[in-house]
Amino acid sequence: MTSPPDTKAESDPADDKLDARVFKIAGVVVLGAIMSILDITVVTIAIPEFQKEWGSSYALTAWSMTGYTLALATVIPLTGWAADRFGTKRLYLSALAFFVVGSVLCSYAWSIESLIGARVIQGLGGGMLMPLGMTIMTHAAGPQRIGRVMAVLGIPMLLGPIGGPILAGWLIDAHSWEWIFRINLPLGIIALIYGFLVLPSDKPQPAESFDFVGMLLASPGLALFLFGVSSIPDEGTITAPKVWVTMVIGAALLVGFVLHALRAKHPLIDLYLFKNKSLLFSVLTMTLFAAAFFGAGLLLPSFLQSVQNETSLSAGLMLAPQGLGAMLTMPIAGRMVDKIGPGKIVLTGIAVISIGMAFFTQLEAGSSYLMLGTGLFIMGLGMGCTMMPVMTAAIQTLTHQQVARGSTLMNIINQTAGSIGTAVIAVILTNQMKDKGLPTGGAAAQQAAAMPDPATLPPEQAAQLAEQKAHGLSLAAESFSNTFVVALILMVLALIPAYFLPRTKPEVPVEGDAPVMVH
Question: What is the greatest pairwise CA distance in the chain?
Fold first, then answer.
C-alpha cells in the first residue's frame, strides 16, 4: 500500500493558487530581492554626499555604482552552476551573508576607493539573490504557476525605483549616508534566520563545468578598461599611464576572452548565439538602451542636489514619477507582447523614453518640478514598454537548448551596459564641468567652504557674490543639460536595432519543448 503524497512538501499542480508554504518562501525571496534592488537605486541619491565626504570627482564617485553593477554581471552566469553544485538554500543564505558583510563594510568606508571595493563585495552577494530567488520560487510553486511567481517577484522590481531614492534621501537627511548601508544589517539578519527556517533543503547535483577562465578574462578586462576611461578627467589626458595602461590591459583581456569563448566547450558567454539575428538585434538594443537609461539615471539626483540645492529626501521624492510611469505600462506591455510581438512595443517604448529625456536637454538652474516630473513620468512610461519586451525578443526565437544561455547573456548585457553607461556619462559630465572652469570634487568643496557669508558683506559685494554664484549654477546646469544630450543620442540610436526586432507574437512551444527557467 502506497502512502499518500506529502502535500506539504510539494504544491498540488492542479491548484493554481499559491499556498501558505509558498508564501512563506516568497517572504524570504522578496526580502532578499528588495535589499539587492534598493542598493542599486539608493546610491544615486548619495553620490553628492560621497563627493562632499571625500572630495572625489564625479567620474570616480560614479564607480560606487559601476563597481556594484559590474559585480552583479560577474556572478549572473556563476549562479546557475553554483546552485546545482552547492544547493539553492545553502547558496542563497551564503549570498545573503556576503551581501550583508559588504553592506557593513560600505558603512565603514574611509575613502571613495574603499567604498568602491566594499560595493564590489556587496554586488557579488546581491547579484545572486534575484536569479536564485526565481529558481527557489519556481521549484516551490511549480512551473504551472510561474505567472503568479513572476507577479510576486515583480513587487521589488516595481517598488525599488520608487522606494529606493526616497528611503536613501530620508536616511541621509535624518542620519547620515552610512545608514543607507547599515539598514541592511538588521534586514539581512532577519532574512538569514527566516530563510534558514523556511527554505526547503535541496540536494546538490553534479553540474557541468564552469568557465572560470572566461570569467577571469571578461570581468577584470571590462573593469580595467572602464577604469581607464573614468580616469581621463582626473589625469587630463589619455596619454597618462593610469589611463592608457589600464585601457590596453583591459582591452587585451577582453580580446583574450573572445578568442577563448570561441573555443571553449561551455563558455561564459556563447558567442555563437549571435548568429540568431533576433538575439543579435536584441543585444544591440539592450546595450544602447541600458547605457543611455541607467547612465542618465545618475544625473538628475546630482543636478537636484548640487544645482537646485534640494535635500536628499526632496531629490528622492522628485524621482518617484519615473517609477510610477513604469508601474503603469509594464503589465500592459507584457500582455501586448503576447498578442503582437515585442518589436512594435519596444519601438514605442524607446520613442517615448526619448521624448521624456528631451526635457532634460533643456535644463536650467531654475527648471520647475513640473517640467522635471513630467519628463520623468514620460521616461517611466517608456521604460515599462522596453526592458522586458527586449528580453522576450531575445529568447522567443531560441531553441529549447539555447534559452538558458540566451537569458543569461541578456542579463549580463543589461548589467554590463548599465555599468558602461554610468562610467561614460560620469566622464562626460566631469569633462563638461572642467571645460566651463567649474570646480569638481575636492576643489568644489574647498571653494564652497571658502565662500563668505553674504550677510557679513557690504551690499555691493553681496550682490556681486550672488551674481557670481548664479552664473556658476547656470554653467553647471548647462553641463548637465549637455550630458543629457549624449544620453538622448544613445537612446535614439537604440531605435535602429529595435526596428529589426520580431513583430509577431512568440510561438507557443510544443509539448516537451517548453522554455526552461533560468538560474
Answer: 100
All three cell numbers of 160: 525599488
DSSP 253-297: HHHHHHHHHTT-SS-SS-GGGGGSHHHHHHHHHHHHHHHHHHHHH
pLDDT over 70 (residue 288) = yes
pLDDT above 80 for 507: no
**Residue found by looking up cell 577604469 in the block:** 227
For range 47-74, the mean pLDDT:
87
Q: Rounded to 5 degrees, what angle do the CA atoms 403, 406, 412 make?
A: 140
pTM over 0.70: yes
Measured distance between the N- and C-terminal CA atoms of the chain, rounded to whole angstroms: 38
Give the span between the Cα atoms of 263 and 70, in whole angstroms. 25
Q: Which runs of consecutive H residues, i.e. helices, occur in 62-111? A: 63-86, 88-107
DSSP state of 507: P
Q: CB of 222 within 8 A of CB of 416?
A: yes
Residue-wise pLDDT for 121-172, tens only, equals 999 998 888 788 877 877 776 655 655 655 566 666 667 778 888 989 999 9
C-alpha torsion angle, residues 279, 283, 289, 290 (rounded to 10): 130
Q: Which three cell numbers stand for residue 105?
A: 563594510
Q: Three-state secondary structure along 177-243?
A: CCHHHHCHHHHHHHHHHHHHHHCCCCCCCCCCCCCHHHHHHHHHHHHHHHHHHHCHHHHCCCCCHHH
Comparing C-alpha atoms, which of 487, 246, 445, 519 is closest to residue 353?
487
Q: What is the CA 37 to chain-centroid distance, rounded?
A: 8
Q: What angle do CA 375, 381, 387 make, to 5 degrees?
A: 120
Q: Residue 492 belongs to what H/E stretch? A: helix 459-493
